[in-house]
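Morning F.,

Quick status update on the modeling queue. The single chain you submitted on Monday has been processed. Sequence for confirmation:
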Amino acid sequence: MRRTFFFGLLAVVLTARADLAKEPWPEAARDFPDETPCTLTEGGVRISISEPGDPEIRKMRGSGGPMLTFTVLNEKSGWKQVFYKQSVGTRWLAPFEGHPQLEIWGRGGGGFYTRCLTRLVRGKYRCVRIDEFINVRERSTQPSITTTLPRSGEVLYFVETRMPKGSEGDLFYEDEK
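Structure tokens below.
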């Protein structure tokens, strides 16, 4: 009985992760300002973006943008999650299972950009899907799919969707092993 339940649950989880790559991107609620530090509050949740206090973390910046501290605080319960990501722009997205989601953009070389769908998974904010875009229409795989960076009018063209490590069918993220 337990074995059947486990394999049934495993199949549901694997299917859910595979479907995430095909789901429409969540609706954007608000763009974060370009300046850091910045804070937005909505529905009793406060999200702040700032420079990390630790100089070793600040040094981790690169072409993907500066390394930033993201702090998500539930003002009612006091629950708080802090994580670090490189970012050139961020959007607050519609909630998933009652928690805010974030769209965090990074920049690569050659006009490539990545948007990372970041949501609460097993108590931590994690990137669960990566969409890659480029600023040159002719290099796109599906030029009819477009978007813009937060607070920018520059049109970006879709290249591919990737699932980050920890969401490619395995049930654990690197920090859980």
